[in-house]
Fold these 3 entries.
Entry 1:
Amino acid sequence: MDLDERQLRAFLVVAETGSLGRAAALVHLTQPSLSRVIQRMEQGLGHRLFERQSKGMTLTAAGEALLPHARLLESEMLAARAELDALRGLRRGTVRIGAVAAVMRTLVAQSLGRLLQDFPQLTAEAIEAVDGELGDALVGRRIDLAVTASELDPVGVELIGTCDYTDDFAVFCAHANPLPQQPTLDQLATQGWVMPGRAMTPRIQFDAICAGLGLPPPSVAVEATSVETMIAVSANSNLLCWLPEPLLAAHLANGTMRKLDVPAMERKRRFLLYRRRSGLLPRAARQFLDYFPLQSAP
């Protein structure tokens, strides 16, 4: 099999866009030129890679089989070029990291800040997402490192270690909320809440806490995917929220929110650092690890 980087890039862009026209614009080729690149690639492989339809281009079975290998090959080519460029002093690479919100805005941001101060030629790409999305991004080669709040499916990923950092989930409310500072569980059972969706890990954990305390499921008045939205709604209403304390530091400091004293609903959370199992870890990611505190490694 003889594939060059141009063919790999053409194949991947057509697969991602599903359109020769859109793909041609992205790879800076005319549509006929891009079509010829794909045809030569198919001839060389002895397989049709796309079904050409009126609505666009869809992968054949052979194309589907090739796709993950093409992504791996392109990623390794880019990593190799970055390593060689670094030796010549042309550039230092890009740190591509994903993390859950609480740790992205604290530990990851602090580590990136120190790294970029010492290595100003480095750049960074940061993705904030939930655990499952981070696992997909890692396996899909959109990021090189992922910091999660729970264990990932081990298929395709490898645990680097446990972060030397924890945070605490607790109950918060607007400063003007009439609840006492130490509400009883019976009082909390009558309150409305702003929460993430039912499938989100924090919601599942909170529902389990309520069940363990013999309380009914929380009365969720507002569901939100954004942490900022949850805080803003709670700060401007009598709804309660259950979030990691570091995310509310500014609101606690300026007096718009307060933490309720409910030890039975507080939970400490640890964080795990993962990499992809296949391929080499890029130089920039290895440099980041020098600045990222780990408590333990497997």
Entry 2:
Amino acid sequence: MNVRRRHISGIAIAAATALGLGTLSACSDSASAANTDKFDVVAAFYPLQYLAEQIGGDHVHVTSLTKPGQEPHDLEISAQQTAALGESDAVLYLKNLQPAVDDAVSQSEVRTKIDAASLTTLEKHGNEVGGHAASHDTSKNDELAGLDPHIWLDPVRYAQVAQGVGKAFEKADPKNAADYRTRTAALVKKLDALNTEFKTGLADTKTKVFITTHAAFGYLAERYGLTEEAINGLDPESEPSAERVKNLEKMAKADGVTTVFYETLVSDKTAKTIAADAHLKTDVLDPIEGITKKSRGKDYFSVQQANLKALQKALGSK
């Protein structure tokens, strides 16, 4: 039996009726009503969905608000998803990443609300992260800084979130607490090993500076002694200024940068334009906001290992 069961809220019923849904069904890609005999978890987007699945195992039924291939930053919540959220046992989200999700969660009657941002530390990051502070980079980085939500790209912070999620599952679904503890410990062990892979693999490189389309890799850069120079700030859809482009080209030459990285869920146009102008290569560095056919791997770990290889190649790993 499920941990608990509630009546759908009036808002959710109205939403479902408006869509002519009647009885809602659940699927793994997009959250619909989660009336199952398992512990029903709605995750905001892929990295949190993955955590819930790995920690919950057979005890949980996980749905995601963000479909594969959908850019999570600009997600809008459908009436069907609002109804599903009202029926779930727990919601796992990352506050300030997806405003529509924040609003839906705040209005929801879900008893267990797990904010991943509260389970680790967030920092303010701008276009440049990692302390390079090159004299040839004159962009006003501080003015563009904001709290960086991309905590899952740092295996250490992601492990901290995993531990917090495991404890929340134990509390909300105590009859399966022992299994949640075991699975959380196994996941944290794998993340510790991934951290070691990155630390070892990036310890000795010709350059420590890499360019990305948007500032998603700041925590990763700080963790492994690198500097991320982002074309855009934390917003993947923003347009860089002419000054920023000029600074990047100067910096690339001064610091021996070989590659401009773009990602799978946003346009590569800006990255390829800058790379062509500065006579640089392009490659993919995946922020793992969703897994698609274009992803270099089938899950979080395989994509992170592909990211490590791409960084080693671009930075000149010795």
Entry 3:
Amino acid sequence: MLQQIFSLSFMTAFLAAAVRLAVPLMYGGIGETIAEKSGILNIGMEGVMLSGAFFSFAGAWYSGNLFVGLLCGMAGGLIVSLLHGLLSITLIQNQSVSGLAINMLMLGVTSFLFKLMSNGQGYQQIETFPNIAIPGLSKIPLIGDAFFNCDFLTYILYVLLVLTWIFYKKTNLGLSFMAVGEHPRAAESAGIQVKKYRWIVMVFNGILGGIGGAYLVLVQLGVFTENMISGRGYIALATVILGRYTPFGMFGAALLFGAANALQIRLQTIGVSISPFLLAILPYALTLIAMLGAAGKNSEPEALSKPYVKGSR
């Protein structure tokens, strides 16, 4: 059994599955990182991703075009994120309560719309985006198939991670967005429009979260099921904390969760004599352990989730 587990074929398939399972978390995580760096906590990422998943499926199903489905998923995520922005930025409501309410709302809305759409027909299947192998790199032992034989959304993610890091580390505009999350009143006094900047990050939060949900439908599964996000939105929030609010830190944390999820699937596949229910909790248990390990290492923006009223003290 151990020889089978540590074989090159097992490790190659395991790493490829880990990356594939981590990509939706990374899209949600990078969207949440952008929002939280400017002071907005969107616990409603679960609802954002669920909306992206449903509307991507509906768009692809009715149009017969996966790219139309992707655009619909992005729009679905954007609408939900803007709703959170309306509540938390304009109406200055509690961000945690707003996010939780959005999660429950979207669970009901998507379930209702899917029942109307399926009309009692049950299972519906669409095509998925194919993998695109990068010549040469995809043949590298162990890591080639995992990182360089992927769908185009995964390659776009790599670029987004680098661009996000450059934006916050190397540009004055990135520093302005971080200032909004650290000291919004000081930022306002320096001429930065806090609410405008926070609305901008909510746009990116919604689009990227919508892509994360759409990825499950358009790349991984080809179907939509009720509550198919199944906690991935909350895990995306955890990856931001574990990654210490940095793009590449979030990438590593998401990959850890993806690896844990892939491991429990692969162990069940080769018939390890452990209860499948016990294996199923492995990804969440490892996430909790990692969260405990990060306790006391607070690096969150100073004004995160705190409502901002212009001119107040």
